Amino acid sequence: MIPTVPQSSVLKWSYRAYVTLFFVYLALPLSVVCVFAFNNSLFPSLPWEGFTLAWFFGTEAPFIGVFHERSILRAIGTSAFVAVWVAGLSVAVGTCNAFLFVRHDFRGKGMLYILMLLPLIIPGVILGISILVFASSVANTLEDATGLWFDGLRPGLILVILGQFSFITTFATLVISARLQKFDQSLEEAALNLGATRWGAVRQITLPFLLPAITGAGVVAVLMSFENFNTTLMLVGSDSPLTITMFDKLKHGSTPVLNAVSLLLIILSATLGVLSLIFQRSKNEK
């Protein structure tokens, strides 16, 4: 509607300047981080000492590149492991939640929907502490009753996965629900009239329709898992994901190797986002 409203030239140029400054504000910090990943210096700051790829491929101290930094590589593997589990659980539960909230009416539906949205409102630190206290209380009770050690309820990867799953599932539910609301249920009814079972109709017709949203939700879940810090910090054990490892290294002094890791994450995020958009567009065109 805004472009159709009569505007003066001053207002048009002001709007364009605002949009330009907004995107510069978003892109400039990321650009600075990326540029200093190639600085031939021990510190990610000016002056510029020359171009180098040592912070990616270097093998000799102090220029140990990200591809030869064992702690970074181990943390990337840990984050990938956590992200795959979180994405799988979030998409599966989010799909079930979408069918529950879109297709069914029951007593307490509104309250249950609000409870699902609560993790988006609660700060990540509070959410992590709450999960840690609850899990520790359950573990202590079970250990006192059985004499066994319940390692999965102590700080570690299982709690990290559950902690991230607790709020990323909400995003997956919202994404998939928005797609499901556009579905024409008469297609399922036609399949049922032709002899298909309820599950067969959902599997052959509804789930393929939801596939772009499910894929998008999975990509979002992976990216959110990789970048999560607050909740993960409260629940992490000896195996640290990438964000925690980078934070620990930053406490001992920043080097451009962290800029190199950040650049790789930016490339990964952009690649996943573009592939997701291409996949969704191809599915929508079909």
From TrEMBL:
- Localization per Swiss-Prot or TrEMBL: Cell membrane
Q: Which UniProt keywords apply?
A: Cell membrane, Membrane, Transmembrane, Transmembrane helix, Transport
Q: Give TM segment ranges.
A: 15-38, 80-100, 112-136, 156-176, 207-226, 257-279
Which one GO biological process term can you cite for this protein?
A: transmembrane transport
* Pfam families given in the database record: BPD_transp_1
Q: Which InterPro entries match?
A: Bact_Polyamine_Transport, MetI-like, MetI-like_sf
Q: Per the record, GO CC terms?
A: plasma membrane
Q: How does it sit in the membrane?
A: Multi-pass membrane protein
Q: Does the keyword Transmembrane helix apply?
A: yes
Q: Which residues does the UniProt record annotate as the domain ABC transmembrane type-1?
A: 76-276
Instruction: Provide the family line.
Output: Belongs to the binding-protein-dependent transport system permease family. CysTW subfamily.
Q: What is this protein called?
A: ABC transporter permease
